[in-house]
Amino acid sequence: xxxxxxxxxxxxxxxxxxxxKRLLMLTIDVIVHIQAxxxxxQITGIDFDPQRRRRVAAD
Length: 59
Fold this sequence. Notes:
The protein has 59 residues and is an alpha+beta fold.
């Protein structure tokens, strides 16, 4: 969803979608998934892969 938001902005419109995803993966270390349920927010998942940045940077 963040990649789509960047792509929709004037600054990100000229970037390829794959490049936006790559830049996000190099920038964001932890992703927290939150879901609204019964008027409250709950954490439904946490994504942390410390090796991902190295793999993405190597590509």
